[in-house]
Amino acid sequence: MDADIETVLQPDICVVCDLNKIDRRGCLGAPDLIIEILSKSTASKDVKDKFEVYEESGVREYWMVSIEEETVLVYRLDNHNRFVAEQRPCVSGDNIKVGIFDDFSIPVEEIFLGIIDFKD
Question: Cα separation of 92 and 111, whole Å?
Fold first, then answer.
């Protein structure tokens, strides 16, 4: 079975709703939600390379969180299996609807609470 696995990525945060995808080694298949914390050293990989892999793999929702700018970019998979930006970048004062759950949203300012100096 391991011979079938071609790509392995380690996101900063992932949510897997189907427990059958989880084994002792991790998630087999696409997580439902992935959140990447952008940093100067990894931003280009997260924005381009990982974006493309997550889209091709069928990740339903992908968030890119910029600590530097205190913004969140939210992408959701559309009916054509392509990521589409849900709206403009989310900032303090906005609520992000978590698309993989019904009736659940997160205020953007709560994402950045307690971060004193996480910037590169």
Answer: 9
Domains plus CATH for the chain?
2-111 (3.90.1570.10)
Residue 47 near residue 21, CB atoms below 8 Å: no
The bridge status of strand 33-38 relative to strand 61-66 is parallel
CA distance 35 to 17: 15
pLDDT tens profile 55-81: 999 999 999 999 889 999 999 999 999
Coil/strand/helix, residue 20: helix
Q: Report the relative pairing of strands 22-23 and 13-15 from DSSP bridges.
A: unpaired
pTM of the model: 0.85
